[in-house]
Specification:
This protein is an alpha/beta fold and 322 residues long. Helices cover 36% and strands 18% of the residues.
Length: 322
């Protein structure tokens, strides 16, 4: 039986008509699409006053993990800057530290934030907690080098889209449970949070080509979980499993009404509220998965990005008390 779906935003529907879409992923298809899952960063840096630095940190097993650090050039380094720690999207199986980097670079322009992006290892070559552990090592490096980076360690924001949003959520849970480092906020953009793939929205976007279908989601989760099943799956890998969402930093979640992750994302926000936490949730009517990264020129995309930036502005630059 066919499940009815929310209609796409008309402008997005027209733009999507010209995009080649897939129904599912396989190891063979993944090998073909991986080389195209990221764009070079250099064109984004042209004309911007940005200092770029490349560093490497060691994962728990000694694997080198690249980090890219983007800092505003010619700024007053005596005033500590906020930091955005970026985890890229790509279904856990593709992309690199430059994927969707245009989003946090806008926050560098707007707020003078230092942006650090991590090249965590990908599944299926890496499985289980390896990906989130890589992200945690990058976070430790940021806090250890806060003075050198010119950042305020009390204003570190973790952020990412899709798989990166899921990793940001898992990283925030891990940092909370370990008691360090402090995270000021998490921005989860259409995050990939639940390996169970059982929500209404996941079934709505099963079958047929799409930007990210239920079948593609199943492939991504199988790749990262490896042999893990049932009770063995850690909450840091699949954050929707977490029984306790208390004690988390303020959270921003946005998603589209026309995408696989809609229901797990809205449920995560609801459970944060139920635990006494603060979350801001936006469900963009007619938005498909990753709409604002694929088509930033669309009106709904511009509004989604502006709303996200306005929230971050309130967080980073609170009005002084009267």
């Amino acid at each position: 039986m066919t499940t009815a779906r929310p209609a796409l935003d008309p402008e997005l529907h027209e733009l999507l008509a010209d995009m080649p879409l897939m129904s599912q992923l396989s190891p063979e298809v993944l090998a073909q699409v991986r080389p195209f899952s990221s764009m070079p960063v250099e064109p984004l840096l042209e004309g911007r006053a940005i200092d770029r630095r490349e560093v490497t940190v060691a994962s728990p097993d000694g694997t080198p993990i690249p980090l890219s650090v983007f800092s505003p050039a010619n700024t007053d380094r005596t005033t500590p800057a906020p930091c955005v720690y970026w985890m890229h999207g790509g279904g856990m199986v593709m992309g690199d530290r430059f994927s969707q980097i245009d989003i946090p670079l806008e926050w560098l322009d707007e707020f003078g934030a230092v942006v650090v992006s991590v090249d965590y290892r990908l599944a299926p070559e890496a499985t289980g907690t390896a990906l989130v552990d890589d992200c945690y090592q990058g976070l430790l490096w940021i806090t250890d080098h806060a003075t050198e980076l010119g950042i305020d360690p009390a204003r570190i924001v973790v952020a990412g889209p899709s798989a990166g949003g899921g990793l940001a959520a898992g990283l925030t849970l891990l940092a909370r449970d370990l008691g360090t480092p402090a995270i000021a906020a998490q921005i989860l953009i259409c995050p990939m949070l639940d390996h169970r793939n059982t929500t209404t929205s996941s079934h709505q976007y099963s079958g047929g080509p799409g930007v990210w279908t239920r079948e593609m989601n199943e492939f991504g989760w199988r790749a990262v979980l490896g042999d893990l099943t049932g009770q063995e799956v850690p909450q840091y890998v699949s954050p929707a499993l977490a029984d306790d969402l208390s004690g988390l930093p303020t959270t921003y979640i946005d998603t589209g009404s026309a995408e696989v992750f809609r229901d797990e994302d809205t449920d995560y926000a609801t459970r944060i509220w139920a635990a006494g936490g603060q979350a801001e949730l936006h469900v963009w009517a007619g938005g498909f998965h990753g709409f604002d990264t694929l088509y930033p020129q669309a009106r709904i995309s511009a509004q989604a990005r502006q709303t996200r930036t306005a929230w971050l502005s309130r967080l980073l630059q609170p009005h002084p008390a009267a």
